[in-house]
Amino acid sequence: MANPNPNPNEETNPFSFSDFPEDVQLCILSFLSPPEISTFACTSKRYVSLCRNDTKLWFAICDRRWGSKTQIKKWGNGKVTYKKLYKTLAEYENLIGFWRRSGQGKNVNSPPPLVFFEWGPSFVTGSRVSPSRTGTYEVVKAPFLWLSVMADGNPVSFLDPECRFELSDDLVEFGELENGLVPVNVSFMGKSHVVVEENMSFVYSNSPEGRKIGVRRVSSSGNLRGEEYGVAEDVSGSPGSLPDRLMSEIYQYFANRTSPGAERASRRQRKREKERQGRRKWEPEHFVKIVNCSPTPSRPLQGLWKGICDDKTLEFYLVAYDDIGGIACRKVGDSSHLFSDYSPVFWTSNTTFIESPFSPEEEYIYDSRIHLWPPAAADSCLRWVENEVVSCILHINSSYDLVIPNLAGTSADPRHVEGRIWKYRNGTFGFGFLRNNYIIDLKHIAQNGCILDTMDLC
């Protein structure tokens, strides 16, 4: 019998992309980025309509990337096109995680400096995170900022200065400013710096026809571009972002030098600006992203941690590795205390751990110190046996010699600055100094994108 395929190496009936069912095609295309989708659409006319299909292709792209984190169909009340939604969600995604306020607040009772952004059903929520005052590891998580989109795809953001507002599932339908919500613009200045400032051009009407949420057009380099939607533009207003303000000052400077009546116009402009500032409900805040907020195998100590201090209060710590291999730890503290926003704790330039077995001297240094735990944890012997087994030790220096110059040089006693990190087998660690008789044990503030041990506000 003759061989039906005389050349077995020759491929027969090769499949092309068009041979796949449409659902398979959409699944494959959902892995591509928008530029790749555009390139693919140019390969054949038959694919143009598929690549333009918003409800099928662009929903599939959004759902694959963010479907496990948020409810794609609820954004914009289900009326926004998914192609527009993709661009907004890609920008919002950069917010997710921890941020630290840059600069001191203007008053003593300024809000906590640590902020955490996370996905909601149809919005992104920003929460202020601070240590509780219960003497435990509990953390206060107070939502204060919400970002979403309107039906036409424009971003919209609201802020609650008092952190008391309880948000319903749909931010866009809310729109009630009687609760003290402040419309704001959230603008990126690079990927790791964001500015939150009041949107002074926001318009809200109580009439049935005008109960719409509006944002002004933002001419900054930020992510919230916002086309006009129910907005009365105030041309005499102050620029919203730092780049706008800088350009305005430059133009004003040259106008004053070239125009005879420019000085009078400038005085009127400054007067209007002062009047507008008097109506502000919110002063701009700058935040810097904490990029490395979790430990890695090569950097086991890095990230955000929390620990009970010698005064029985909970404090937050940020441990960071530098480019030359050193480690530094700072408090991310309660802003009601002077100099506590970002105060140094310890540092070391040598990250070589001492492995077990340890010398008798190191054993004594560890065994002779008490662990600062909450009362419930201090009574648990099981917790001690399972979790606080030391796997390795690291020598550190107190940051006293950084804050107080020449302290190390003027004292012959190294106990003033020398300390230890004890890394435990469960991945956490504790630290202490030779001048003290206690160890501060640190735990994770967040894990797998969720804040641990949160407590409700009273």
TrEMBL record:
GO cellular component, one term: cytoplasm
Superkingdom as given in the UniProt entry: Eukaryota
Keywords, in A-Z order: Nucleus, Ubl conjugation pathway
GO BP, sorted A to Z: gibberellic acid mediated signaling pathway; protein ubiquitination; SCF-dependent proteasomal ubiquitin-dependent protein catabolic process
UniProt biased composition (Basic and acidic residues): 272-281
Ranges for domain F-box: 14-61
Function: Acts as a component of a SCF E3 ubiquitin ligase complexes.
Complexes and interactors: Component of the SCF-type E3 ligase complex.
Protein name according to UniProt: F-box protein
